[in-house]
Amino acid sequence: MPVCEAEGHLRAVAAASCAPGERVYRGAGVNFFDAFWLASPAFPAARRTNASFALVESTLGALRAAGIRYFRFFAGLYGAEHALWAREPALFWPPMDRLLDVAAALGLYAIPSLHCEWHAVARALGAAETSNDLVLNGSSLARALARRYASEMSRRYARRGSVLLWEIGNELNLLANQPPPLCGGARCFGSEALVEYSREMAELLRTGDRGRPVSSGFAQPRPNAWHMEHCVSKPLPRHVKAADCAYRGGEGWVDTPEQYVQMVLWLHEPLDVISIHSYPPHAHAAAHPQRCPFSVREGCAANSTLALALAEHAARHAGKMLFVGEFGGPHPHFTGPAVDDQTFPDAVLNFQAGPGFQSDNFPKLHGGSALVANAPRPFALSAIWAWACPSHIEEMNCMHPNTAIHRSYAGSDRLLERIRQVNERLHDEDARRTDYTAALT
């Protein structure tokens, strides 16, 4: 399920290989997550500092000038603000149309991440619902809204060449099996129900637009996702052995690498693209093992690269494309300003480019041993967090080629150069390949 390129144009396909005359495209992109927010009349006035469509357009122009081909964005307004779509569609849709038109004119491609906070929209429309209603209750208002939006989006933009692929929403898997009050007074929905919700949303998107693959938008599974799904009920399900729930302390603790792979594959069973979001662990994760993937013996950061390697392994096993839909340094220094803040994103870019492609401008993550030991193979798409981020410019470090615009852009020239190098290498390697599997060997 590759992204294919011919005469400078990209398209993602659900087939196993590109058509004759096309070549496989792999490349590093960015998250311009607030592109639609800034263009919408529903965006809160408190965050509208110099916000206008002219700002969106100039920011997209800077993105294209930097040689980047695609961006991921939130194709839904934040929380209850998205009720504008249901209440006043004539105000909601024109900024989205214009955003995709400008992207097309610039030769850019977009990955719209639809929405997942449908319970907040339902509440704004008068229904007291939670995320459990969205995922577990097929007759809820939240589910009805999600169905309608997926259908409208895919049908409206099925013929837009600037849409690269569809994404159901952002990181809904992180709610699975979490305790109250995240989903109201009850424990949050389980992963099994989430898979079925994803299946329905994917089918709706494919019905409206049969030409494009569907991704989940999921984050990297929580370190204890398998345990929380399988080890909570007493007695245990028949297919679960007590020994499987005993690793690092059982429920609430940490999955094995094998259990992690099982979760990645299971969560994406109905989808075309495997999505993970990858960040270095919290600074205190080593003192709280349940926050750190796998064994802490090699250090949490090394295990974050192992998690990425395992996700790539799972994608290859399933014959699916891997999209690292978010990655960056430690919050809030996602892209800098210090070189140390950029060590993890540089490691992800090294991983995407493949073995033998290491940077001399960044510290090595545990001497590079985690990357080498886990035999990294190149993967298809990545989107660093984040590009420009005008709506959150006072709160986080982001990337922009003009570092003089704002202090939050300091240091981003190093990562921009790294992305350019990665894209150049991937372009050269893929020049004569048409089969996606061949591009990964």
Automatic annotation (TrEMBL):
Q: Which domain of life is it from?
A: Eukaryota
Quote one Gene Ontology molecular function term.
hydrolase activity, hydrolyzing O-glycosyl compounds
Q: Which residue intervals define the domain Glycoside hydrolase family in the entry? A: 96-331
Keywords associated with the record: Glycosidase, Hydrolase
Q: Which GO terms describe its biological process?
A: polysaccharide catabolic process
What's this protein's family per the entry?
Belongs to the glycosyl hydrolase 5 (cellulase A) family.
Name under which the protein is recorded: Glycoside hydrolase family 5 domain-containing protein
Organism, per UniProt? Prymnesium parvum
